[in-house]
Amino acid sequence: MYTIADLNKGDTAIIKDVSSIDIPIKLLEMGCLPGNEIKVIQQAPFSGPMYINIEGTHLAIRSKTAKLIIVDKLKDE
Amino acid sequence: MSKQIKVSLIGNPNTGKTSLFNALTGLNQKVGNYPGITVEKKEGICKLERGVKAHILDLPGTYSLNASSIDENLVIELLLNKNDKDFPDVAVIVSDVENLKRNLVLFTQIKDLKIPVILAVNMADRMKYKGISLDIPLLEKELDAKIILTSRDGSLGISELKECIVNFKQISTKPSIDLSLIDENYFNSLSSAFPNQDLYKLWVVISQDANFGKMDRNSLDILDFKTKSTSELKRLQQKETIKRYQFINNALRLGQVIDSSKAVGYRAILDRILTHKIYGYLIFFIILLAIFQVIYDWSSVPMDLIDTAFADLASYTKEVLPAGVMTDLLAEGIIAGIGGIVIFIPQIAFLFIFISILEETGYMSRVVFLMDRVMRKYGLSGKSVVPLISGTACAIPAIMATRNIENWKERLITILVTPFTTCSARLPVYLIIIALVIPEGSFLGVSYQALTLMMLYMLGFGMAIFSAYILNKILKTNRKSFLVIEMPNYKVPVLRDVLITVFEKTKSFVLEAGKIILAISIILWVLASYGPGENFNDAENIITEKFEKFENINIESEIASHKLEHSYIGIIGKSIEPIIKPLGYDWKIGIGLIASFAAREVFVGTLATIYSVGNTDDVESTIKESMSSEVYSDGSKVFTLASGISLLLFYAFAMQCMSTLAIVKKETNSWKWPLLQLIIMTLIAYVVAFISFQILN
Predict the structure, then answer these.
(1) Which residues from A are below 8 Å from B68, CB to CB?
(2) Is residue B522 included in any domain, yes or no?
(3) In the list B120, B197, B252, B626, which could disulfide-bond B256, CB 3.0-4.6 Å?
(4) Number of domain units in chain A
């Protein structure tokens, strides 16, 4: 089982589960919903925030939040 | 005059909502605060056809009706309260054509509140570069709303938008989602429990518990309706969000075509460089240096001009008007006081030109991304870096710049710690004392004096970070800190928007903080210019008699010195001598400390007066000589290494700037924070200066 935090820069994945209650609803409303594709654009150093793209919405989330979002990894680069 | 139509502009952040607001209202706008909180309230008047006017309210950017900040909470409370005087007759939902799908989530929520809605699809001028085409009539039918294509510079769609606002009564108020489809049992029981209430409003109120915090329910007559745990509420919210996206996808599948092969953009390349783990920081560092250079260096030219102009105006006033108390008050109190406000305008204007460009281009979000890891540890936001660095020039514009920090706690901490950074007003004080007490000589090729100055800068910055760390532990917050930052597309700033921001910031400083600064500077002037008893009022005769037999004495400056010594401020300076004695200061320094409250650099000028330096060409070296030859009655020197270091440390930590206090009062909307800042910073300064003097002495 992978989460967004396990992805590397450039990786693409499909969101599987966002049912953890610690995920802010704002994130879901911005399109972080099961079935949507996510791509990691950049990772700030020393496990800083992750810069991701979900279906055209570009977001930065902290790694703490990234660990809660379960994904299916698509491909490595 | 007919009644004004009340319009609210609502939209996600980064959709160019404020540009549209500026295009509708021009300079016919005012920026204030919502009562009791520090969220900016922007409102303006827009002329429509047939003499009708609209009152436009630019609500804070919000992603949804599920609040995660004070700003968003405010939007919800307004939209739920029909009795609020700002409750809109019609809402204009501003969306970004490139993020239409996500922006429509908020659109469906507002529509479900049964408020008449106009959808402004902004930045429509960029559609062709992004390969986007929209079937407007079809979308209008699917979304059941009037749609207008607009652009940020106001060249597109403004007149259509105005026309729609006039005819707002024809807009459909049919909701877009049927809540009961999400969970039939729950929503049926909810509506039977509160038959007189609107179901969606009920749901918004109840679900806020899972978000920001409890709302004030008295206005809605909703008592606690506890049927679901937080996790169940969250699950329902998730289902609701999916439902909204289904509705939106359904409409867009028919009405929107995106041909990504036609899309051009520099976003990917820019992001690769600007958020890079080495170049990203390097570029940010260079930008900070540039900002610093501009407010420190470029503003000195207009500031000197302002300084000279007000000095000339004051002496001109004294020449033309008959001599007397009122003329003195006008020339030395009021004109000099206003000069002390106007002098900040160049720095404020320059800093806000930079900040609004950084915000408008979308770069500021990249700064948050880069700096979050470092700043979060100290309870600060990635955006706190800009105020902290610009505080090294002046704390006033720096504190005003904290407005851009969304999280209130992070913003408050930034406001509270910024005055520790070494502002340029401390520099003259530092330079003269360093020259006086730090010995010549060098360490590894760097002089001791330069090293001391550098250490004072580092000390200021270190203290700011350290107090942020402490404050982060002490201050309570009623919400978890989530970082979900949208990384908007890069945009070319609209000149009009930058200028309006600079104008509004400057205006609010002059009008709001300005009156406090003026009041205090007049008080300080009175205290320094008047005194009780013969010693003050008869100073001319006393000094003339005393120095009758001397030659080579500048009588004028001796009189000024004698007057200052016996003025009210002099009396205060003398009476605090027992308190400052353990720090190694005499009453003359005491007078300097109190006068410094007008602005720290006044210290040097006050000492010049008290040592009766007079008007020589090289005031600084003359003061330096007088200071170094200053002795106590037992013959020991006043300025030693111990008292010098103690004074440097006192200036490094003490809150001695009424203008900063005035701006903190304005930005936090209460006297509580500036007073705490004054007391705690002065206390820290006292303790540190005390310890250093006692050890070194």
Answers:
(1) 24-26
(2) yes
(3) B252
(4) 1
